[in-house]
Write a structure and sequence with these properties.
heterotrimer, A: 333 residues, mainly alpha, MetI-like fold, two-stranded antiparallel sheet, disordered C terminus, C: 298 residues, 11 helices, globular
Chain lengths: 333, 294, 298
């Protein structure tokens, strides 16, 4: 059109066409942001490829299955079978879920439904503050305080219920799977609680009122209306917490005993993938196979968290679709 | 000069487009500095013409082959049941339609002969020429009343010295000045719903558009606020061509010179408001205006 | 929901059994909340009790001496190191994260690239911090990038990787909460897209973005594992990011393992310091969040 080719009008009003110069900022912003997004993708690709390449040595030596499933981690003999580490990671994380999630969900329900309005705000902040304590402090505290205090209880439990599988142990060591699981439970509590609270807050008021209007007690309303509605979101939250537990390093290193031999009781000492990396990377720098084994441990850890997180994302996404509201899963606290 | 469905063979605008400088722009702007109100040069209102306009959301065909023209200094109301495509059609006039994912439009929108969908036409410039007021008042929450009105001017790079004057002019033009002149620096979100909507109208007026589109501007307001806006529309039509979408037939009857009835994405009938509501030609129009459906 | 059978006895009060269940479950949830608070109280109490003695002027103003006997010094280098490392990480990660979030909400839409970015940012959220530390150790420390092996900026790089997905994700949520009507209003005024983004969208989402960024910084400040591989543990204070740098979590981790009561006390003192720093960040974030919610802006 002719209008497009006219020069700028004298009155200072723009034409229907714009000069290329005035489009430039738009293009710069669009291209710049796209470039950043692509760069992040490239970085992640590099991250994955780098880990894969660097861990190839141990996979060639032990085989992928051999590395993951052989029950023998012996640095002195240059044998790297990571099963004790994988199992340690899984046991401690599972214990953390078992102890942490029910409490976290109960707290979330309490804060959204039962808590008196006056204290709700401050109580919410206090629970969030659990997340502000750095993991190394939890580790320290558990080591100096929790372990000595709980040891007699653990011993009593192990003796009394020795007939149960994975419980019996002659003498309960201070650091063990159970303690590590407990510490992890405390650490994942604020995460799971925060997201569960957000999900529970999306339960429509009319749904709740409909239940109460039918003459249900408050607990019956929670059980029949709120929890089913928020179920998927809570599952997602738990999975995110699980992901955090799987990758937690320092606190676990301090309280699990760092023993690469598979314990036979939940009160036995053990090791996790993350802990082994933190403890052995220094000595491994000069030993290519050892180094490669630690990187492979990191890779296995990555794959584990990837699996858990994918399940979590799926669950949260479904619950978002259900409630039609974004939930800031995975955000800071 | 009532708008009516036009067919592509008879239109007076054609010669304007072919000969001489394009009539839409550049614009005469001489009078602007002397008056504080938005320029009142009557010649600024524009003839808007839709030709074979089609609009889609993905595969959904929302507006079908609409041919229509809006006369200068006229208020045209678009009525029709929900989902008839009236909002979509209006959003095509300032090319807001294409902001929605998967939405596109075909055909021509001519403003005094210049096709807004033509090659080389910049969508940003289109929206400076064709302003819009939305269904729900949407003042910028982070800005003061003053900054809200000035926003469009700042976005489009108006000279700093002019801004204050034009803000005042626009607020007066939107009949809001007396209510807010003492609190221009307070947040725009603190106003009542009706005031917010007039603030949005002031914001749109400040950039001095040639055409003002109003997409159900009163649907979120109470009757008193609605009345104020309707009065305002009557004043504004001397300055801008106004197209108003409404689901309220009484409102159309009150404010519009011309009324357009749409159904299922198609244009059913166009006529002088009085005639369309009393002696409609089309049976469907009659059924709708007498409340038989919709 | 519940069946219609209830309608018959609407006017009767709930049966004793139902009321008992209700009471019991409420009590259970009260208890659970109490249980959840126990560790927090215990951790804070224990830390204060053990470490408060270490906090004196010297603690904040001297570096660790490393002597086998005698005065062990304070944690000045660790405090400054943490601020430097985390600060630099934030300078890198926060703008990048906001940039990615802007791309996702304002430009990417539902396109394939945006979907891929969204997915992988989510994946990144789940990567354990130690794996990021390992990665940086491999590509920056072992390779001696920048003429150094361990260095503060490499610690920052590891923490930035950790923060990036958190910032992106929380910024994206904040940006999504900006009503579309505001974007439309600005576009309809003839604003070019970049001005819509810079002048309308970003200010409207600012408090949400700042909250997310602060929480990410708080999370990174407490991380130990990635720093052990990247910035390592030294005694002296340095302002050169290309040198090994001390940090509070790393110092705590190291002191704790020493058979020296003074060092263990110093670890607790350092823990108090670190908790206080993180608490401060978290509280600021919460206050901003609360304010903006009260205002109803975002």
């Amino acid at each position: 059109m002719e209008a497009a080719t006219q020069p700028m009008s004298t009155g200072g009003r723009p034409q229907l066409g714009r000069s290329p110069a005035s489009r430039l900022p738009d293009q710069i912003l669009r291209l710049g942001l796209t470039a950043i997004a692509v760069a992040v993708l490239a970085l992640l690709a590099y991250f994955f490829v780098k880990l894969a390449i660097e861990s190839r040595l141990v996979f060639e030596e032990e085989g992928i299955l051999g590395f993951v499933f052989a029950n023998n981690w012996n640095v002195a003999a240059s044998i790297y079978g990571a099963l004790p580490l994988v199992v340690g990671t899984l046991i401690t994380s599972a214990l953390a879920l078992l102890f942490g999630v029910p409490v976290a969900v109960a707290v979330a329900v309490f804060l959204t439904e039962l808590c008196p309005k006056r204290v709700r705000g401050s109580l919410t902040i206090v629970v969030d503050l659990l997340a502000a304590v750095p993991s190394v402090v939890y580790g320290l505290w558990a080591f100096y305080f929790l372990i000595p205090k709980l040891k007699p209880v653990e011993q009593w439990f192990a003796d009394t219920f020795h007939f149960l599988p994975f419980v019996a142990i002659d003498s309960v060591p201070g650091p063990n799977y159970f303690i590590a699981g407990l510490v992890l439970a405390i650490m994942l509590l604020p995460i799971v609680c925060a997201i569960s609270r957000e999900v529970l807050a999306t339960v429509p008021a009319d749904l709740k009122e409909a239940s109460l209007g039918l003459g249900l007690t408050r607990w019956e309303m929670i059980r029949t209306s709120m929890l089913p509605y928020a179920r998927r979101g809570i599952v997602g939250a738990s999975m995110l917490g699980l992901g955090r537990a799987i990758g937690e390093t320092i606190a676990v290193t301090i309280v699990i005993g760092d023993s690469p031999i598979l314990g036979h009781s939940i009160f036995g000492q053990g090791y996790t993938l993350a802990a082994v990396i933190a403890n052995e990377f220094n000595e491994a720098a000069a030993n290519p196979l050892h180094k490669s084994a630690l990187i492979a441990a990191g890779l296995v850890l990555f794959v584990l968290t990837l699996l858990v997180n994918s399940i979590a994302r799926l669950a949260v996404m479904r619950s978002e679709r259900q409630s039609g509201r974004p939930i800031s899963a995975g955000g800071g606290v | 000069m009532n708008p009516r469905p036009t067919d592509a063979t008879e239109r007076p605008v054609q010669k304007a487009a072919s000969g001489g400088p394009p009539p839409l722009l550049p614009l005469p702007t001489s009078a602007s500095t002397s008056t504080s109100a938005p320029r009142e040069s009557a010649g600024r209102t524009r003839q808007v013409e839709l030709r074979d306009l089609n609009a889609f959301y993905g595969s959904h065909h929302a507006v079908k082959d609409v041919n229509l023209s809006f006369a200068p200094r006229d208020v045209t109301a678009i009525i029709g049941p929900s989902g008839c495509g009236k909002s979509t059609m209006v959003r095509c006039i300032n090319r807001m339609h294409e902001e929605i994912d998967g939405a596109r439009a075909e055909g021509q929108v001519l403003v005094d002969g210049t096709d807004l969908y033509g090659a080389g036409v910049d969508v940003v410039a289109v929206r400076r020429a064709v302003g819009m007021v939305f269904q729900k008042p949407n003042p910028f929450p982070t800005m003061s009343i003053r900054d809200n009105v000035a926003a469009g001017l700042r976005f489009t790079g108006a000279p700093r010295g002019e801004i204050d004057e034009r803000v005042i002019g626009a607020l007066k033009g939107a009949s809001l000045w007396d209510e807010v002149k003492d609190r221009l620096d307070q947040p725009g979100a603190g106003l009542s719903g009706g005031q917010q909507q007039r603030l949005c109208i002031a914001r749109a007026l400040a950039v001095e558009p040639e055409v003002l589109l109003m997409d159900e501007p009163c649907s979120a307001l109470d009757p008193v606020a609605t009345l104020k806006i309707e009065e305002l529309i009557g004043e504004l039509k001397e300055r801008v061509t106004i197209v108003i979408v409404t689901h309220n037939m009484q409102q159309a009857a009150r404010v519009a010179d011309t009324t357009v009835f749409m159904l299922g994405g198609e244009l059913v009938e166009v006529g002088a408001t009085h005639k369309l509501f009393t002696t409609p030609e089309d049976e469907r129009t009659e059924q709708y205006v007498t409340g038989k459906f919709g | 929901m519940e069946s219609g059978s209830l309608s018959a006895d609407l006017l009767r009060p709930p049966s004793p059994r139902r009321r008992r269940t209700d009471k019991a479950m409420r009590a259970l949830m009260w208890t659970a909340t109490g249980i959840a608070l126990v560790p927090l109280v215990l951790v804070l109490y224990y830390t204060l009790q053990k470490g408060i003695g270490a906090l004196d002027a010297e603690f904040f103003t001297t570096d660790p001496t490393g002597n086998f006997l005698g005065a062990q010094g304070g944690v000045k280098s660790a405090i400054l190191g943490t601020i430097e490392i985390v600060g630099f990480a934030a300078v890198v990660a926060v703008p990048l994260g906001i940039g990615v979030a802007l791309y996702l909400t304002e430009y990417g839409g539902k396109g394939r690239l945006a979907q891929a970015v969204r997915f992988f940012v989510d994946v990144m959220t789940g990567v354990p911090s130690i794996v990021f530390g390992l990665f940086i150790y491999l590509v920056l420390v072992l390779a001696g990038t920048g003429g150094s092996t361990f260095a503060g900026w490499k610690g920052s790089a590891a923490l930035a990787l950790l923060m990036l997905p958190i910032v992106t994700r929380s910024s994206e949520v904040a940006l999504q909460l900006v009503p579309n009507s505001l974007r439309e209003a600005a576009l309809a005024l003839g604003a070019p897209r970049w001005k819509v983004v810079v002048r309308v969208v970003l200010p409207s989402a600012a408090s949400g973005i700042v909250t997310g960024a602060l929480l990410a910084v708080a999370r990174a400040a407490g991380e130990t594992a990635p720093l052990l591989f990247t910035a390592t543990i030294v005694k002296a204070t340095t302002f050169n990011l290309n040198q090994p740098m001390n940090s509070l979590p790393a110092q705590i981790f190291q002191d704790l393992k020493q058979p020296n009561d003074e060092l263990v006390e110093r670890a607790w003192g350092a823990a108090i310091t670190l908790i206080a720093m993180i608490l401060l960040l978290t509280l600021i974030a919460k206050v901003i969040q609360r304010r903006s919610r009260a205002k109803g802006a975002t």
